[in-house]
Amino acid sequence: MGVSEGDAKAAADCLAQCPDYIVLRRLPRAGHYCDDASEPLRQALYVDVETTGLHSGTDAVIQFCGVPFEYAPESGRIHRVHPAIDCFEDPGRPIPDVVVRKTGITDAKVAGKRLDEDAILSALGDAVLVIAHNAMFDRGFLERRLPAFAEKYWACSQVDVPWDEHGYDSAKLEFLLFKHARVFYEAHRADEDCYAGIHLLATALPNRDIPMRLLLERARQPSWRVEATAAPMERKDLLKSRWYRWNPEKRVWWKDVPDGDRAAEEEWLRAEIYQSLPASPQMEKLDLKRRFT
Questions:
Q1: Residue 189 to residue 63: CA distance in whole angstroms
Q2: How far apart are CA 107 and CA 67, in angstroms?
Q3: Strand runs (DSSP E) across 57-187, as ranges?
Q4: What is the pLDDT of residues 148-192, one digit of tens each?
Q5: Beta strand pairing status for 78-81 and 154-156?
Q6: DSSP 8-state symbol, 32
Q7: CA dist 185 to 21, 125, 197, 199, 203, Å?
Q8: What 3-state DSSP class applies to 105?
């Protein structure tokens, strides 16, 4: 005997009031989050790609999703969410088994298909900001496939929101959806990941601040690229734990930091990485359009 939607909702509402249970609801496909007509609005494009591997220089996009949405630039409140642009692309090579298991995307599903470049570029043209969760990954693939993405401002819902300061031990999308928004979704599907990211940014924090506002605040700040030149390889785990990335071409660990954190980052490198070594980090001020490149 099946359970009606009304009965299921009543049971979930009842359990949610008991401290011994946590209720997770399915991610909603909200068409809007706010209806305040008094706020001026701008448009952003939330993007996600599924790929044949992790390296943008050699691997290829097999699925793109972009969801345009409107937001208030001062309050960060998210208003209307537009329909997704969701398309597949044949990479011209077999999709690795590990990717098929993770994403459900098979060779047959992408055979002969191409990204809808006209629709993607139209949405991109209307957007003042492109957002992704782990923007470093998505930006590399999208700039290579569609160079127009290089001319946009980018932000990252993973690192531009100070999740740790609000008590979250991980900034992974699935974890934050569970812990912060109390919803579940089908991870590693580009369309679901986009709606999940927008929902995450729209869901108020315990102090009532809005993650999207915090993201915008961070994205507007000057930032610096810090390169831990001559860092001893035995200290790589320390660097990785602090979100440094390895650049194999320059053979250096690096990360981007906001202007206000530059002095503290240099102090940390000298104390934890260089110690008594006669070496110094290199720092370059970034144009805001170069974030996550």
A1: 9
A2: 25
A3: 61-71, 78-81, 85-88, 129-132, 154-156, 183-184
A4: 999 999 999 999 999 999 999 999 999 999 999 999 888 777 888
A5: unpaired
A6: B
A7: 19, 29, 11, 11, 15
A8: coil
Distance CA 164, CA 149 (A): 29
| Listed residue (193, 194, 195, 198) closest to 210, CA to CA | 198
Q: Of 41-50, 67-76, 182-191, give the lowest mean pLDDT range.
A: 182-191
Tell me if 25 sits within 8 A of 5, measured CB to CB. Answer: no
- Strand ranges (DSSP E) for the chain? 25-26, 42-51, 61-71, 78-81, 85-88, 129-132, 154-156, 183-184, 223-228, 245-247, 252-258, 282-286
pLDDT single digits (tens) 203-230: 999 999 999 999 999 999 999 999 999 9
Q: Is the dihedral of CA 56, 60, 63, 65 positive or negative?
A: positive
Rounded Cα–Cα distance for residues 290 and 293 (Å): 6
Instruction: Report the alpha-carbon distance of residue 192 to residue 65 in Å, rounded.
Output: 9
Long-range contacts of 265-273 (CB under 8 A, 24+ apart): 265/226, 266/226, 268/242, 269/226, 269/228, 269/231, 272/235, 272/238, 273/228, 273/231, 273/232, 273/235, 273/238, 273/239
**DSSP structure class, residue 169:** S
Handedness of CA 238, 220, 217, 25 (dihedral sign): negative
Does this model's pTM top 0.85?
Answer: yes
Q: State how far the Cα of 270 lies from the Cα of 24, in Å rounded to an integer.
A: 44
By the 8 A CB rule, do 161 and 214 touch? yes
Contact 132, 139 (CB under 8 A): yes
